[in-house]
Amino acid sequence: VQADGYFIYKHDNKELANGDNANIYTIGSRITGTPTPHWAYSVEGAYQFGDKQDSTVDPAYTTSPSAWRNIDAYGANASITYLCRDELNDQFSFAVECLSGDDPNTKGTDEMFDVLWGRWPGWSELYIYSYINETSRKLAQMNNLVRFGPTWACTPLKNTTFSATYNPMFAIENTPTRAANPALFSDNGNFRGHYLQTVLKHKFSDHLSGHLWAEFVWMGDYYTHKDTMTFLRGELLFTF
């Protein structure tokens, strides 16, 4: 078992129109362990406090565009994995993640979890782009999210790995308070949609590797439209 604790302070100065001023304090901990050769787990939770001045919040959900609001947010994730230890190195895992969203009914408080320096494709190359319209045109500013589901991973051939993941996704708050295009959101649904990912990777040599990556989101009633989001990528990577 390994236990880690952390305290992070982040100070933001607004530079762009969709930026903000903020003092964000994050305190959290993470525990990981391998109780047997076949089982592994991790659990992490964090709480955020401080204050933020964000003019991109819809005026209907704040006292004024220039108001400083108190931060009261949280984030958590957990996973458990069964390692078969067989010829295909099969692994079956189940993961859950929860990031709080801004409550439109509390004008003086900001409940949106800020991912700090974590705005990158942590688990999805596709879904990060949906947050451009939801969070003041900030790419990968994940928040207001609950997702969970299984992943199967294996090694079908030497130097080849394959994984498949399915997550149903939900919004804690059905109204995004920083929506760049409010017409895209229904304001009366919490189901974001079904998420599916498959990844095939192969290492051809010490200098050449590649992958085939596919992601799909079948959008739910959180949105006003029911399109299918699609991401497909083939990549060859030369290393010298």
Protein described:
The chain has 240 residues and is mainly β. It has one helix and eleven strands, in the order ββββββαβββββ. It has one helix at 131-134, and strands at 2-12, 21-36, 39-53, 68-83, 91-99, 109-110, 145-157, 160-170, 191-203, 208-219, 228-238. The longest helix has 4 residues, at 131-134. It starts with a strand and ends with a strand. The mean pLDDT is 96.
Furnish the topology, listing elements before pairings.
Blueprint: E1 2-12, E2 21-36, E3 39-53, E4 68-83, E5 91-99, E6 109-110, H1 131-134, E7 145-157, E8 160-170, E9 191-203, E10 208-219, E11 228-238
Parallel strand pairs: 4-6
Antiparallel strand pairs: 1-2, 2-3, 3-4, 4-5, 5-7, 7-8, 8-9, 9-10, 10-11
Gist of the model:
By secondary structure, the chain is mainly β. It contains 1 helix and 11 strands, in the order ββββββαβββββ.
List its traits.
about 240 residues; single chain
Helical proportion, percent range: under 10%
Q: Kindly, what is the distance between the CA atoms of the first and last residues, rounded to a whole number of angstroms?
A: 37 Å
Mind summarizing the main beta sheet?
Answer: 11 strands, mixed
Portion in strands: over 45%
* Chain-averaged pLDDT: 96
Structural class: mainly beta
Number of helices: 1
Shape: globular
What is the rounded Rg? 20 Å
> What sequence of helices (H) and strands (E) makes up the elements?
EEEEEEHEEEEE
Spans of 5+ residues with little confidence (pLDDT < 50)?
Answer: none
**How many β-strands, per DSSP?**
11
